[in-house]
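Appendix B, record 7
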Amino acid sequence: GFALSGGCLRTSTAWTEALPRVGVNDVVLYNIFAKGYEVNDFVDALSHLINGANGKVNVMLTLDSAPYSEMTLEKRDTLEPKYHAACAYINRFAPDDYTDYYGMIIRLINALSAKGLLQYISWQLWQEPDSDKYFHGNINQFKVITTVKFDAVVTTNYPIYIGDFTSRKLKQEYRDYVATDAVFNRPYVHYSTSLYPEVKNALTDYNA
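Structure tokens (predicted):
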């Protein structure tokens, strides 16, 4: 398997040409809503990757960012300085408008469907949201944004993965939410631990 930023597909054809040649069958894509990236451009690049592999590839799309909006200094300065640089191209705060965010995911789904790509897709709702590096919000915002994501991707009838938490067991309230909320206790919702074995034990211990 291989994980990379969705932007790599849009800025260079090297990835879409190289991955099939080296026999990569499982690809995880992050940052698919980064600054300047249009949904149709991303789907075109993804189509090139999948078709280049003759359809012999599985793609997990991680909804780990909100639509990009210009970051105010006031908003950026709520973060530790080491995270400031990323604010120039990715929005890991909660969306400014949840309805718009839902609509953006639906537009992505429709574009994938129009290209005949949904059969290759699974969804990951987040990646390590209990780390300030990957989610710049609070637990209440996290609950709303997760529900919005779920409500959008569940319409595709394709696998949904919860995503992993950090192996350091940060922010227990995030794990409590996932362990107790009914939306996650469904047969087609899975943990992503097979993709990230380094956190498997931490999640297994918690959910025992």
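Remarks on this record: The two ends are 28 Å apart (CA to CA). The beta strands are 2-5, 26-30, 58-62, 121-124, 160-161, 189-190.
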